[in-house]
Amino acid sequence: MSTKPKQNRMTISLDMNKSSTMAIYRIIDGVLKKTSIESLKSDPGAYVVASTLMEIRQKLMKRVDDYLIFGGEDEWKLKLTRTQALAFDCWFHPSNEDEQMQALIKENTYEYGLIVKICGIINQAFYT
Asked: Measured between alpha carbons, how far is 124 from 8 in angstroms, rounded to an integer?
Protein backbone atom coordinates (compact mmCIF):
# COMPACT_ATOMS: atom_id res chain seq x y z
CA MET A 1 0.00 0.00 0.00
CA SER A 2 1.36 3.42 -0.95
CA THR A 3 2.13 5.99 1.72
CA LYS A 4 1.43 8.91 -0.62
CA PRO A 5 -2.16 8.78 -1.84
CA LYS A 6 -3.23 10.74 -4.87
CA GLN A 7 -5.95 13.13 -3.88
CA ASN A 8 -7.96 16.14 -4.80
CA ARG A 9 -10.39 17.97 -2.59
CA MET A 10 -13.12 15.35 -2.77
CA THR A 11 -11.42 11.97 -3.33
CA ILE A 12 -8.48 9.94 -2.12
CA SER A 13 -6.85 7.08 -4.02
CA LEU A 14 -5.04 4.36 -2.07
CA ASP A 15 -2.69 1.86 -3.70
CA MET A 16 -3.87 -1.56 -2.56
CA ASN A 17 -2.50 -5.07 -2.93
CA LYS A 18 -4.11 -8.46 -2.45
CA SER A 19 -3.31 -8.81 1.27
CA SER A 20 -4.48 -5.30 2.18
CA THR A 21 -7.64 -5.72 0.11
CA MET A 22 -8.51 -9.03 1.75
CA ALA A 23 -7.74 -7.71 5.24
CA ILE A 24 -9.79 -4.51 4.94
CA TYR A 25 -12.67 -6.44 3.35
CA ARG A 26 -12.68 -8.98 6.22
CA ILE A 27 -12.64 -6.19 8.81
CA ILE A 28 -15.46 -4.16 7.25
CA ASP A 29 -17.51 -7.29 6.58
CA GLY A 30 -17.01 -8.49 10.16
CA VAL A 31 -18.00 -5.15 11.66
CA LEU A 32 -21.12 -4.84 9.54
CA LYS A 33 -22.19 -8.41 10.33
CA LYS A 34 -21.88 -7.78 14.07
CA THR A 35 -23.75 -4.47 13.98
CA SER A 36 -27.45 -4.76 14.74
CA ILE A 37 -30.05 -2.68 12.95
CA GLU A 38 -31.53 -1.79 16.34
CA SER A 39 -28.30 -0.12 17.45
CA LEU A 40 -28.15 1.79 14.16
CA LYS A 41 -31.76 2.95 14.46
CA SER A 42 -30.99 4.51 17.82
CA ASP A 43 -27.99 6.42 16.44
CA PRO A 44 -28.62 8.11 13.05
CA GLY A 45 -24.96 9.10 12.72
CA ALA A 46 -23.83 5.50 13.07
CA TYR A 47 -26.47 4.50 10.52
CA VAL A 48 -25.03 6.91 7.94
CA VAL A 49 -21.47 5.74 8.63
CA ALA A 50 -22.48 2.07 8.38
CA SER A 51 -24.25 2.63 5.06
CA THR A 52 -21.16 4.40 3.75
CA LEU A 53 -18.99 1.48 4.90
CA MET A 54 -21.30 -0.78 2.87
CA GLU A 55 -20.34 1.24 -0.22
CA ILE A 56 -16.64 0.68 0.53
CA ARG A 57 -17.33 -3.01 1.15
CA GLN A 58 -18.97 -3.28 -2.28
CA LYS A 59 -15.89 -1.78 -3.95
CA LEU A 60 -13.64 -4.22 -2.11
CA MET A 61 -15.96 -7.17 -2.74
CA LYS A 62 -15.48 -6.84 -6.50
CA ARG A 63 -11.72 -7.20 -6.05
CA VAL A 64 -12.01 -9.99 -3.49
CA ASP A 65 -14.21 -11.97 -5.89
CA ASP A 66 -11.70 -11.32 -8.66
CA TYR A 67 -8.87 -12.64 -6.46
CA LEU A 68 -10.78 -15.72 -5.31
CA ILE A 69 -12.31 -16.70 -8.64
CA PHE A 70 -9.88 -15.53 -11.32
CA GLY A 71 -6.62 -14.85 -9.50
CA GLY A 72 -6.93 -11.12 -10.23
CA GLU A 73 -4.24 -8.48 -10.55
CA ASP A 74 -2.33 -7.92 -7.32
CA GLU A 75 -2.09 -4.10 -7.42
CA TRP A 76 -5.00 -1.67 -7.81
CA LYS A 77 -6.23 1.69 -6.56
CA LEU A 78 -9.07 2.06 -4.08
CA LYS A 79 -10.75 5.38 -4.77
CA LEU A 80 -12.72 6.77 -1.84
CA THR A 81 -14.83 9.87 -1.82
CA ARG A 82 -14.30 12.28 1.03
CA THR A 83 -17.46 10.96 2.67
CA GLN A 84 -16.30 7.35 2.39
CA ALA A 85 -12.83 8.16 3.72
CA LEU A 86 -14.19 10.11 6.68
CA ALA A 87 -16.71 7.34 7.46
CA PHE A 88 -13.87 4.80 7.47
CA ASP A 89 -11.86 7.03 9.81
CA CYS A 90 -14.86 7.66 12.05
CA TRP A 91 -15.61 3.96 12.49
CA PHE A 92 -12.09 2.51 12.58
CA HIS A 93 -9.95 5.26 14.10
CA PRO A 94 -7.55 3.71 16.64
CA SER A 95 -8.82 6.01 19.40
CA ASN A 96 -12.28 4.42 19.04
CA GLU A 97 -12.76 2.49 22.29
CA ASP A 98 -15.60 0.31 21.08
CA GLU A 99 -15.36 -3.17 22.61
CA GLN A 100 -16.59 -4.78 19.41
CA MET A 101 -13.77 -3.12 17.46
CA GLN A 102 -11.15 -4.14 20.00
CA ALA A 103 -12.35 -7.75 19.84
CA LEU A 104 -12.22 -7.74 16.04
CA ILE A 105 -8.92 -5.90 15.55
CA LYS A 106 -6.16 -6.82 17.97
CA GLU A 107 -3.24 -4.45 18.50
CA ASN A 108 0.14 -5.40 17.02
CA THR A 109 -1.38 -7.27 14.09
CA TYR A 110 -1.19 -6.65 10.34
CA GLU A 111 -4.84 -5.57 10.32
CA TYR A 112 -4.33 -3.07 13.12
CA GLY A 113 -1.28 -1.61 11.39
CA LEU A 114 -3.21 -1.33 8.15
CA ILE A 115 -6.09 0.47 9.88
CA VAL A 116 -3.66 2.88 11.59
CA LYS A 117 -1.92 3.57 8.27
CA ILE A 118 -5.14 4.21 6.34
CA CYS A 119 -6.56 6.41 9.12
CA GLY A 120 -3.27 8.35 9.16
CA ILE A 121 -3.43 8.90 5.41
CA ILE A 122 -7.06 10.04 5.68
CA ASN A 123 -6.27 12.37 8.55
CA GLN A 124 -3.32 13.88 6.68
CA ALA A 125 -5.39 14.34 3.53
CA PHE A 126 -8.56 15.78 5.02
CA TYR A 127 -7.86 17.14 8.48
CA THR A 128 -4.56 18.99 8.01
From this structure: 13
Q: Are 76 and 16 in contact (CB under 8 A)?
A: yes
Return the CA Rg of the chain: 14
Neighbouring C-alpha atoms within 13 Å toward the C-beta of 79: 5
Instruction: Give the containing element (helix H, strand E) for 76.
Output: strand 76-81
Give this prediction's pTM.
0.83
Q: Which residues contact 3 (CB under 8 A, 6 or more apart)?
A: 117, 121
Compute the average pLDDT of residues 55-80.
90
- How many C-beta neighbours within 10 Å does residue 67 have? 16
Confidence band, pLDDT 50/70/90 cuts, at residue 83: very high
**Higher-confidence residue: 1 or 38?**
38
